[in-house]
Structure formats: C-alpha cells, structure tokens
Structures
1.
Amino acid sequence: EPEVTQTPSHQVTQMGQEVILRCVPISNHLYFYWYRQILGQKVEFLVSFYNNEISEKSEIFDDQFSVERPDGSNFTLKIRSTKLEDSAMYFCASSAYRAVSYNEQFFGPGTRLTVL
Amino acid sequence: GENVEQHPSTLSVQEGDSAVIKCTYSDSASNYFPWYKQELGKRPQLIIDIRSNVGEKKDQRIAVTLNKTAKHFSLHITETQPEDSAVYFCAASGEGGSGNTGKLIFGQGTTLQVKP
C-alpha cells in the first residue's frame, strides 16, 4: 500500500538556523498539507497546497515558513530562522481529493524537530 | 474561528467494555469528520470517518455517530482490547474561509487506556 514518507525522522538544529523538512506524498495525490504537533498536544494545521500554490495557511504559518513542490514528487516545508517554540513533530499529509469530497488524508510518519 | 472540542481527555476502561469519545465542532459548514488513532511516536492513522449525509457508520467494533443539528459527533468502540490503547483524535474538515482546502481541525485528543 502506498504511503507518505518524510525525511529526516529527527532533526536537531540551533535556534536561528534554517531547516527544510521533506515529504514525498502518495504519487497520484493532488492535495498536500503540513501539520504540526507539539509534544502532548493536538495536531495543528499549518498549510494546504494545491496546483503549486498555497490554498490556505494558519496563523502559525507566518513569514518564517514556506512550502515548495520543487519537482513532481517532493513537498518541502522550510523554516527560515527557527525558534525554540518551533520544536514539534511535523506531519505531512496528502489526499487525492479535498477532504470534503471523498478521500481521506494520509499522514506521513513525521519529522521530530528539536530546536536548541 | 473553527474549533473542535473533544472529551474526555483521558479514558480508562476494562477490556471488553465499551468506550465513547465525544466531539463538538463550531463551523456549521463542516461536513467531513474523521477519527484518527495515534500510537506513541507514530503517525495518526485514520480508523473511521463520516460525512454529513449520514448519521451513523459502523466498521466492526468501531462506530461513529453524527448529529449535525447539535454539531456533535462521537466515536464508539465496543469490546475493547488492550491494543486499542492509544490517543484518539477527532477532526472536522475546515470549510471556512475562501474556497475549500480540505484542512482538518483536530480535537485535543483522548488517551484511551484499556486494562487487561
């Protein structure tokens, strides 16, 4: 069964550094998402992406964040200047359709980001 | 803004008993309601979902009910087993704002412990 994959599984960085989190969505999917989960808390929506542009972003997704689909398979989340409060598990998800239509969102295994 | 409230935050049951987790949502335009199971350190896994055109859906020991008028939906697990122990998240498709991006708004999670 096809799965969403993410790399790295764990990223440790110094405050102020840039990080890029990578995701490979399921190949025939068209809608891509990033969520984050601070340890012990709920999953929070960051951004949705369709047709090579951001569809919607949350208040968390400020100008320090950006997303890109550099080729036909990868979907990346960049944090330009990391802060301590960016430490969280970041999940990528993809779906063939918008959730309201018919299909579920499939989540990747996550990247645990630790900012020191 | 959109919000999903989930109760209880923790639930402990004896093996074989039933477990019920309840969620309420604020955005009356939401019409897709998935439930995810998350084991420690792993990705959220979809276990069941319901769309607003039905009031109930069942899959073996798991069932979900939806009351659109009251903006409530619930997860029912019967004949619980120790392997059901995990954190369960409800979510609603956030249809607010321009367009429909399919973003999921998650509840706070319920830690279910099934005692053998």
2.
Amino acid sequence: QSVLTQPPSVSAAPGQTVTISCSGISSNIENDYISWYQQLPGTAPKLLIYDNNQRPSGIPDRFSGSKSGTSATLGISGLQTGDEADYYCGTWDTSLNAGSFGGGTKLTVL
Amino acid sequence: QVQLVESGGGVVQPGRSLRLSCAASGFTFSSNGMHWVRQAPGKGLEWVAVVWYDGSKKYYADSVKGRFTISRDNSKNTLYLQIDSLRAEDTAVYYCARHVGGGSKWENWGQGTLVTVSS
C-alpha cells in the first residue's frame, strides 16, 4: 500500500505562512488525488482540502493545497493560534483500492 | 446535517471479538462508500477498510486482512466492523468516515469509539 511521508512538526508565528509537505513513493500517487485533514486535540479529523486543491464549503481560503508529481503541499496563511493541530494528508489509491494517510504533522503557532 | 455516530467500543481481552457500529443520518447512506479509519493512542491515522455504496466490494488494509470484516445495512443506515482475534496493537480509536466522489474525499467523520485490548 502507498506510503505518504510528512514532516513530524512545523512551526511559525501568528500571521505568518506555513507549508506542510506530503511525499509519496508510489507512482500511482501521480494519478490519484490528495486530501488534507485537520485534527484538533481530542477531536475527529476534519476535511480541509480534497482533490489536491479544492476547499469544502466553510473552509477559509487561508488554507490551500497543491500537488506536483508525487508530492503535495498544504499551505496555511495568516496563521492563528487556533490553527494549532495535527495535519494529515491522505489518498485513495484507485489501482490498489486502498487508502493511506501520512504520519501527520504537528503545527505549532509560536 | 450529516451525522455519523460510532458505538461498540470498550475494553476487550486479547483473542476475543468485537463488533463496532456506525449509525448514519442526514444523507442518503446507500449512495456513499463508507470507511473505517483507526488511530492508536498518540499515533497517526491508519486506513482500515472500505465497503462500496451497495456492499458489493470490500477492501482491507494488509494489517487487518483476515481478522476484520466490514459490512453495511443500507436499510438501517448502519455501517459495521467485525473485529476477530483482537490483539494489543488493535487498541485505537475507530472512526467511520463517509467517502464522497471518486477521489480521496473523506468528507464526514464520526466522533470515534475507543477499543482497548487488554487482559
């Protein structure tokens, strides 16, 4: 099954912009969509970005997604203390019929 | 609005079985694939299994294949996960999630149910 790799942690000051990377090792990642999830402490994951760069309704445009080849990036601008959370990338591998998630990245807003 | 409510978790001895349920409301349950995703204490998300919207296809993570069985009852708007031969490493919060569209869009998640495997 696919393996997605994320940095364990990132940090930035309020108001700044941070990016979180998600790298895949399967060539199938090139053909599949990446989604991103925010998990606040003690809560269930919440969809932030789907299909590489689409935001569900209600998600502010401070959150953005992009993908190139086997790598994807989540961007968060205008950081707020409320953005402190764990962030996960995920994908549904259509050739393996299996899902996978990155190991998660803990965002600290200094 | 969409609601997913898991139940059935608890403390179970190694080797025993457990069945988790996920009650769905607020959408046409029979139109969406449904997944189970788990999260061990202090760890990341791990995809577990999926069942197609009509129950015709089921796929599992290699780590649970042969011990876990996913199923659904569209007449009851309920998703299930049967877990057999429980192991300590199955200790986790189990989430059900609604898949929307053909990409990787787990749009809605339940609040999770905790399974603790311990003697």
